[in-house]
Specification:
Distance between the termini: 26 Å
Order of helices and strands: EEEEE
Strand order of the largest sheet: 1-4-3-2-5
Helix content: under 10%
Shape: elongated
Largest sheet: 5 strands, mixed
CATH topology of the domain at 1-15 and 46-100: OB fold (Dihydrolipoamide Acetyltransferase, E2P)
């Protein structure tokens, strides 16, 4: 099965908050507009793993060529990188996909 999502987010091994923002106090109230989670929650999806050759490295993303497909994967500053990440390197990337939008189309008649 091939995935055709435009951008992916690396969520594996990320802290619950960023380095520049302190963790909320344990007794702090939840935000007033906090949504109630129903069904699967963020991070509950199965991780996706791809292996391929790096064709572009940016501060905010990495582009990996797997066969004829190019995968652009967003990078979080806290994502763990093992080894020298550069163009031409063979890498394995673990990430989770998040839908940025969903459009339901009419069935063909």
């Amino acid at each position: 099965m091939r995935y055709a999502l435009p951008v992916f987010f690396i969520l594996a091994s990320l802290p619950a908050w960023s380095e520049d923002k302190p963790a909320p106090a344990a007794d702090a109230p939840a935000p007033a507009a906090a949504p109630i989670a129903k069904g699967p929650v963020l991070g509950a999806t199965r991780p996706i793993r791809i292996t391929g050759q790096v064709i572009d490295v940016r501060e905010d993303a990495i582009v990996v060529q797997k066969g004829k497909e190019k995968w652009e994967i967003a990078r979080h500053p806290a994502a763990a990188i093992k080894g020298d990440l550069k163009k031409g390197a063979r890498v394995t990337v673990d990430f989770r996909a998040i839908a940025a939008g969903i459009e339901v189309r009419d069935e063909k008649k």
